């Protein structure tokens, strides 16, 4: 009887732990380190914080921030606004310096900048007043837009103009500040994982209770 109860408890723990662990493993996460005042989804960042795909990072004129992920590092330059997307970075304004062996790309103003091959690549992208400046520091880059793709060789620099659509969007909405987190705390991967564990825990409790023998009546 006691052994059977132990097996039930073990099975219930597996129900709780495995789905939550698999869910967490699927999330594109990294660490954000601020140097000066920086915002994560509109909230001041402490010295460091976990960052997930979809999160927004903003620096001011006197600050920078680092995003460290497996095989990649992103330096968010001062007075910049970016969205971290796991396999890429979306630059609204300002600049980023990318160092990657995982082909981490940067999207800005209708242009996608990505390593030309899966080797260690370093490059810088800036977007100031509608002009996109791209520099290939180490390794070749592929530049893609609605006109096609070109290669920027190591050591070269080039410029592109933002697409009219992006220019109009920025004029209408502005990019001076980070909007609040779109889904709030309850939509974060951590909160969803906790919710999954709670639901599984309740289900496990119900299984144990349903198998308990009914106490005999006096």
Structural features, described:
There is one protein chain. The chain is α+β, with helices and mostly antiparallel strands. The protein has two domains: 2-25 and 188-211, no CATH class; 29-180, Sandwich (Jelly Rolls), CATH 2.60.120.1440. The protein is built from three helices and 16 strands. It has helices at 2-25, 164-173, 189-211; strands at residues 29-35, 38-40, 43-44, 48-52, 56-59, 64-69, 72-76, 81-84, 88-100, 105-108, 111-115, 121-128, 131-138, 141-145, 148-152, 157-161. The protein has a 16-stranded mixed sheet that branches. It is globular, with a radius of gyration of 24 Å. The two termini are 23 Å apart.
Give the rounded overall mean pLDDT.
Answer: 79
What's the CATH topology name of the largest domain? Jelly Rolls
Strand elements, count: 16
Name the helicity range.
25-40%
Distance between the termini: 23 Å
Q: Spans with pLDDT under 50 lasting ≥5 residues?
A: 20-26, 179-192
Question: Characteristics of this structure?
Answer:
alpha+beta; Jelly Rolls; 16-stranded mixed β-sheet; 26% helix
Summed up:
This protein has helices spanning 2-25, 164-173, 189-211; strands at 29-35, 38-40, 43-44, 48-52, 56-59, 64-69, 72-76, 81-84, 88-100, 105-108, 111-115, 121-128, 131-138, 141-145, 148-152, 157-161.
Task: Please write out the topology.
Layout: H1 2-25, E1 29-35, E2 38-40, E3 43-44, E4 48-52, E5 56-59, E6 64-69, E7 72-76, E8 81-84, E9 88-100, E10 105-108, E11 111-115, E12 121-128, E13 131-138, E14 141-145, E15 148-152, E16 157-161, H2 164-173, H3 189-211
Parallel strand pairs: 9-10
Antiparallel strand pairs: 1-4, 1-6, 2-3, 2-5, 5-8, 6-7, 7-9, 8-9, 9-12, 10-11, 11-14, 12-13, 13-16, 14-15
Helix pairs in contact: 1-3
């Amino acid at each position: 009887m006691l052994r059977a109860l132990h097996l039930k408890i073990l099975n219930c723990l597996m129900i709780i732990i495995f789905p939550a662990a698999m869910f967490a493993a699927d999330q594109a996460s990294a660490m954000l380190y601020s140097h000066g005042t920086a915002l994560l989804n509109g909230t001041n960042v402490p010295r460091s914080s976990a960052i997930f795909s979809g999160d927004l990072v903003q620096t001011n004129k006197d600050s920078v921030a680092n995003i460290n992920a497996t095989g990649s590092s992103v330096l968010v330059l001062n007075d910049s606004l970016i969205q971290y997307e796991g396999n890429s970075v979306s630059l609204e304004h300002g600049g980023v310096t990318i160092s990657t062996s995982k082909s981490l790309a940067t999207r800005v103003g209708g242009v996608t900048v990505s390593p030309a091959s899966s080797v260690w690549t370093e490059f810088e992208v800036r977007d100031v007043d509608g002009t996109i400046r791209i520099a290939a520091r180490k390794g070749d880059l592929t530049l893609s837009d609605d006109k096609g793709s070109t290669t920027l060789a190591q050591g070269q620099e080039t410029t592109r103009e933002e697409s009219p659509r992006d220019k109009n969007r920025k004029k209408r909405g502005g990019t001076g500040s980070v909007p609040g987190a779109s889904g709030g705390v309850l939509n974060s991967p951590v909160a969803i994982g906790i919710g999954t564990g709670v639901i599984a825990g309740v289900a496990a409790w119900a299984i144990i209770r349903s198998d308990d023998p009914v106490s005999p009546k006096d």
